[in-house]
Every structure is written in C-alpha cells, then in structure tokens.
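Many introductory courses stop at the sequence. We go one step further.
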Amino acid sequence: MKEGQQDDVDFAFLDDVDELIRESATRPPTTDNYLSESRMRYLLHGETGSYSDSALEEKVNERANELSVRIRRLLYDITALEHDDRLSDIDDNWNYLPDVSKPEHWSMRNLHGRDTKSDLDNSEFQLGFSIGLALSTLTGTVFDNRRAQDFLSGFTLAYHTDDHYKEKGPSQTETNEYEIADGRAEVLERYDIKPTPYLDEVIHITNIGLSEMNGDPPLRPREATERYVENRLGESFGKYSTLRLELDEEWNSINEASVPGINVKQALETLWNLRVSKETGQNITSETIALAMGKSATHKRTVSNVFNNLSEEGKSPSNRLITTYKHREVVYWSGQSWKFTDYGKALAHHVFRYNQNAEWIQKEAIGVDPNHSGRGVKSEKDSRILDSCLSSIYS
C-alpha cells in the first residue's frame, strides 16, 4: 500500500454494487473460502445465473460460517511471521496491506450505509475506516453492544502497547520498556502520582469510552489525564498515592539503620521471608534472623541494634538509641518475636513482593480492569495489607 495515496478518479457516477462485483471477478476460480463472482452477483444483484437459489444459498451460508476460520488463520499467519522476525520493518509491512481504490472504499461505505465526516483523505485513513466498517458490522458499534465496547478497547489498546510490555510479575522491576503517552507522565507527576502502564491504560480506555459515549473526539493524553485526575481520583486515591510516596522515601533512606556487620535491607528481607514462609508460627528472634542471614548467633545483638533503629521502643535499646526511620515505625519487638508494624508490612510488601512497582497500590485504589478480563485487579491479601496500614495512619 502506497503512503498517502490519493485517487483523482471521478467516482460520483460509479455503481457501488458493480464496483465490488468487478473486484470479485478478478478472483481466481478456486475452492478457497471467499465469495466468488457468481455468489457476489447473487448477494448484490440477486442474479442466479446457471445456479439454483438453493445451491447459491448453501454456498453463501458456507462462506459466512467460514468467516471465523479466515480471521483466525489471518491472525495466526501474522503472529507466526512476526515471531520469525519477518515483519520487523514497519515500512515494508505496508506493502502487505491492499491498495484499495477510493471508488472501492466509497462503494463499501455506501453499501454499509455508514460514512464519516472526517476530512482525512489519505489511503491509510481510508483503509482503516473500511476495515473498521467491516469489523464493526460483525461486532456491532459501541452504541449497539457492550461487547463491541470491549472489542474496541482491546483493539485500541493494542495500538498503544509496544512489543516489550508484559504485565509485570512479582520479581520484575519497573523499566522504561513501556512508554507512557506523551504529556501524561508530566501531569501525573505534578500530582505526585507515579506514572505506570496500568494507569496509562486506565486513563486511555476511559478517554476512549467517554468520547464514544459523548460523540466527541478523544482528548489528547495531557488533557485526558487532567480530566481523569480531577474527576475520577478523589481523596481516597490521594491517601494511597501519599502512602506510595512515603514507602519509596522510607526505603530510599532505610540504609541509615544499618550497622557494621548487618545490612538493614537484608535483615528486613530475612524477616519478611521468615514471616511469609511456612514457619510463620515460630518466634522470630534476633538470633533467628542472624542465623537465617548466614551469620553466627553472636550477631544477634547487632540485629537487635539494626531493628531498634526502626522501632519506637525496640528490644533492650541503649539510652543513646536514635531512631532512623523517616516516616513511621517499621518493626517492633513483641516481647518474644520481631514483627512488622502495619506500615512495615506495607513497606516490605511494596519492596520485596512488588519491587517498588506502584501498580499494585494503584490497582487497589482504583480497582478498574482496563482490559475487561473479568478477573478483577484487586488482591485480597494486598487489600488487607493496605487497609490495615491506612487505618493505622488515619484512624
């Protein structure tokens, strides 16, 4: 397909039906599952030729039933070619798309009974609109069918997802592999909100949905983000966002609690691992932590000193103890065991479970699944940890 191709053909007097029949006549005689010229004439002109109505009806119904097979095979073919790196040159890929003339586009629009008032007139727009007409004929428009809205959301999202983005797992850190829409990150950061792929998708899908509902063009990313933050994110989200900021600040300054021989980050991770292990019922003493870190039992006092720096009262602290936590107490000594405070649990979960990926907190705060997968985005455990932490802060 040639870039920006324009047709200077006067098509005002062309017959829409004959235009499609002329195209079908170029199809080779074959058993492939597309509509032959005779079947196109039957559908568009009612001509039966040498065939009976019943024979043509049977063949046409067969072709209709095979649409799903044709679409699936096309999807599989493109996926296989892409996997083998045969579609890596986007400019070359446009050569695989059909050169459809303007008369053909207008014939399809007229036969569908739908048109656009857009003044875009290049070949890329024309082809995109014709494909959209065909697909929306199968799915229904967003005004007709909820499933069509979900289909359009997925279709649109694919154009905003690069080939490196996959939903992050527990062991993955945030990277720059996913590029947030231009202007969105700046707006979010102005509100002290961490830009993430999840939030980017939620705002984008909301923007598309509102534009379809109101019949207006979608807002640009910057304006859409402003509207979403101002209209959709209230005081509750602000508490989650503030907590995320405090957790990151806490972890960034946590090394102040380290002492020679014991690294505080390793000590906290050891406590977290012991707490989430199958042995959660045991008392976790300073000696338990030292041994789990590969240290000797003689390091138990050093472990206590580290945790005392992150605790209000600690375990037998010296009179010279000065706490080093930035915002709130992280751990405490229960009399028999070291435990995380509610704030400390959220910190450990944020760091060791999610590698400081802000998405888990945003998902709990917003609770919207942009992909409409039906699985939901909230986790019972995540909700429990965040609810307890926020209750301890704001109660």
